[in-house]
Fold this protein.
Amino acid sequence: MIIDGREIAKKIKERVKNCCANCTRKPSVVAIMLGEDPSAEAYLRMLERTCKSVDFDYTLKRYETSLTEAELLKIIQENNEDPLIDGIIVQMPLPGHISEERVIMAIDPKKDLDGFHPLNAGRLFKGEKATRPCTPLAVMTIFDELEIDLNGKDIVVIGRSNIVGKPLAVMLMHKNATVTLCHSHTVDLASHTKKADIIIVAVGIANFLTSEMVSEKSIVIDVGMNELDGKLVGDVDFEGIKDQVQMITPVPGGVGPVTNAVLLLNLLENFGGICQ
Ligand SMILES: Nc1nc(=O)c2c([nH]1)NC[C@@H]1CN(c3ccc(C(=O)N[C@@H](CCC(=O)O)C(=O)O)cc3)C=[N+]21
């Protein structure tokens, strides 16, 4: 079965829309973008479309790449202090002369939508209520929507980034899965993936997961976003394994659309909306 991420995203957006039907004002997000970058532009357009589709306020604030770190920190501070702004996204990666860490730290953790702030990361680590990063949250939401029970499941996560692999491993652990976090130094990766119930790939290499690494019980979640011959592809050899596994997410149309939709859930949470 091919998992339809667009359908799951649609369901989330419908739910979010209903949550705010009686709110006194709309939840609002500010995206801060330095310079120009085609893939970042594409992401921002999607973000705008997602917010507009549920009638949330979206404002893009553009600055030159020459903006200094001090200037950016001041802009963030102003947005932190604006009571009409519920969420702030600073588009990553930032130009080399600006410290991403200092920028992330400057965002009010209550307005953090990416879940990158160390306070949110620390809370997640301890199993407390926290804004969770959108990509791992999207993966968890897919399991939820498909009613895939994670309790006691053998799950292999490939990739240990701070944005995907690491937080995802923590979230899965909190759902009582047995998590194996694999990475570039893992010996005999296939021996791990072949016996797993669920394989999640987040390495950023096209065609990384191949048919020799899966079994017919595998549920494969492809978090990758790579460009190959001018096309957007994931980390999985999708054509090579789609008929061989139990379930698989495509790219595009898998985790990506759900990632954008769950950002609305984080925004709603910051806004103080009640959404079931
Ligand atoms: N502070 C920050 N937070 C981010 O979350 C962040 C960021 N910076 N910088 C850029 C990356 C990239 N990213 C994407 C999310 C979803 C799709 C997505 O929905 N993709 C569609 C495909 C769209 C197409 O066809 O081009 C899909 O998978 O179906 C793409 C890209 C979030 N990012």
